[in-house]
From TrEMBL, chain A:
InterPro entries, per the entry: ACP-like_sf
Species per Swiss-Prot/TrEMBL record: Streptomyces rishiriensis
Protein name: Acyl carrier protein
Organism domain of life: Bacteria
SUPFAM superfamilies recorded: ACP-like (SSF47336)
TrEMBL record, chain B:
Superkingdom field: Bacteria
Pfam annotation, one family: Acyl-CoA_dh_1
EC number: 1.3.8.14
CDD domains assigned to the protein according to its UniProt record, in alphabetical order: ACAD
Family matches, as InterPro entries: Acyl-CoA_Oxase/DH_mid-dom (IPR006091), Acyl-CoA_Oxase/DH_mid-dom_sf (IPR046373), AcylCo_DH-like_C (IPR036250), AcylCo_DH/oxidase_C (IPR009075), AcylCoA_DH/ox_N (IPR013786), AcylCoA_DH/ox_N_sf (IPR037069), AcylCoA_DH/oxidase_NM_dom_sf (IPR009100)
Domain Acyl-CoA oxidase/dehydrogenase middle: 123-216
Protein name: Clorobiocin biosynthesis protein CloN3
Root EC class: oxidoreductase
MF annotations from Gene Ontology: oxidoreductase activity
Cofactor(s) annotated in UniProt: FAD
């Protein structure tokens, strides 16, 4: 997936799942997700599940670090660079 | 879709169960550290301390489902659930991350861990950080010799008998839970202080204590994974623990159910077996139904792990189902055994005490339900 496709999907997921839809529209691509604890351990697990189930991207454990998850721009760059895993049954 | 066990799985389960039954037939749960260590040697002799560790390090190289089946056999045939829990926690929350993320230096510990010569304790929980690992206060600061650890862990299973700890500490305070790093810490290092055994309600064969790191210098080679990779490593190890460890409780429930069937068919009241009363027989039926429901969820969660598909919801459902079934079935067993079950010594009240913490450790039921609910988009 291209960066332009990935970024809005991830932004929408974070906004709706972790910020009650971000009613004031404050979430940007450079919002510090870790520093502001928007991405805590539980939310990160949910985000990784979303990436796997919805975007078909399996993030290797070695790539789960602060640099890759500090903001939406970094996550989108990471995800767009990973090859989508093939669809599987439930 | 295939629900049957393979011939290899049947054979391994039967062999493990028989070996455990033989070694632990006369075993009595003890809180004496030396006796606990001797029990560990017996478990290690059957290979239970290294089930899923790589063969080149002395393990059996099993996947998650096969590991779970072996732990189920352990729980079925060994009434000392504290020992079963301690061995499984050592394997899943400590040895697994060392095997998968350790440097060659850290992996040198693995051979000892696989054969049970080195007992490991998972030092994560702190007074202010249980489910929320982002609240951890222990720190690891870079030094010329590696890292200097400071902080106190509040509940470390196996600690009084442990030779090595797998611990987590903050290396980057600005990065939340991704600012944690994981370390293997040999107990012999200066600055590792293990507290006295904590008095507990159950799982008495698993000693637990607080562990304090006081300026403990840990060589960089004992860091597991990358700096900042601790949060992900911990979640990975919890996937294994929530999936595989709880299989031991399937084994406990299987043994308990057999005991209840025996009890209700042997005991007669009003001129008939008490199993002849529907209030009794339906209780047994419910116990079986809960056990099998939980079993299917756990086997599927482990199968997904083996496929490389770490499914948070599937693991959370399995963990919740097994723990709630274990408690519900233990309460049923208590009722079926009546006053005999309430007396210490028959094993029934011990089962209940050993099952009660399952909805707390490895992630509370509340957190598992939150994960499941939020996976639904709530």
């Amino acid at each position: 997936m291209t960066l332009d496709e990935v970024t809005p999907r991830i932004t929408t997921f974070i906004s709706e799942s972790f910020l009650d839809g971000d009613p004031k529209g404050e979430l940007t691509e450079s919002t510090p997700l870790l520093e502001w604890e928007i991405l805590n351990s539980m939310n990160s697990a949910l985000l990784l599940n979303f990436l796997r189930e919805e975007l078909r991207v399996d993030v290797p454990l070695s790539s789960i670090n602060a640099a890759n998850f500090r903001d939406i721009a970094a996550i989108s760059t990471l995800v767009s660079g990973l090859v989508a895993v093939p669809a599987e049954g439930v | 879709m295939e629900f049957d066990w393979s011939p290899n799985q049947r054979e391994r389960y039967a062999d493990t169960s028989a070996a455990v039954a033989e070694r632990f037939a006369e075993h009595e749960t003890s809180t004496d550290p030396e006796s606990v260590r001797l029990a560990w040697k017996d478990a290690a002799g059957i290979g239970l301390t290294g089930l899923c560790l790589p063969r080149e390090h002395g393990g059996a190289g099993l996947g998650a489902l096969d590991t779970a089946l072996s732990l189920e056999a352990f729980g079925r045939s060994c009434p000392d659930m504290g020992l079963v829990f301690g061995v499984a926690a050592h394997l899943l929350s400590c040895a697994v991350p060392v095997a998968e993320f350790g440097t060659d230096e850290a992996r040198e510990l693995l051979a000892g861990m696989a054969v049970g010569d080195l007992i490991a304790g998972n030092a994560m929980t702190e007074d202010e950080a249980g489910s929320d690992v982002g609240r951890i206060r222990a720190t690891a600061e870079r030094s010329s010799e590696g890292y200097v650890l400071n902080g106190e862990k509040s509940f470390v299973s196996n600690a009084p008998v442990a030779d090595v700890f797998v611990t987590y500490a903050v290396t980057d305070p600005s990065a939340g839970f991704l600012g944690l790093s994981a370390f293997a810490v040999p107990r012999g290092l200066d600055g590792v202080v293990v507290g006295p055994p904590l008095p507990k309600m159950g799982l008495n064969g698993c000693l637990a204590a607080r562990v304090r790191f006081e300026g403990c210098v840990v060589p960089a080679g004992y860091r597991l994974g990358a700096e900042g990779g601790g949060g992900a490593i911990f979640q990975h190890s919890m996937g294994w623990e929530r999936g595989c460890l709880f299989a031991a409780y399937l084994g406990l429930m299987e043994r308990q159910l057999a005991e209840c069937v025996g009890r209700t068919t042997d005991r007669r009241q009003f001129g008939r077996k008490i199993a002849g009363f529907q209030a009794v027989s339906h209780r047994i039926a419910r116990m079986r139904q809960r056990l099998e429901s939980a079993r299917l969820l756990l086997y599927r969660a482990c199968w997904l792990l083996d496929q490389g598909r770490t499914d948070v919801g599937a693991i959370a459902m399995a963990k919740t189902a097994v723990s709630e079934a274990a408690i519900a079935n233990s309460l049923d067993a208590m009722q079926l055994f009546g006053s005999t079950g309430y007396l210490a010594g028959a094993g029934i009240e011990e089962q209940l005490r050993d099952c009660l913490p399952t909805t707390i450790f490895s992630g509370t039921t509340e957190i598992q339900l939150e994960l499941i609910a939020r996976g639904e988009g709530l």
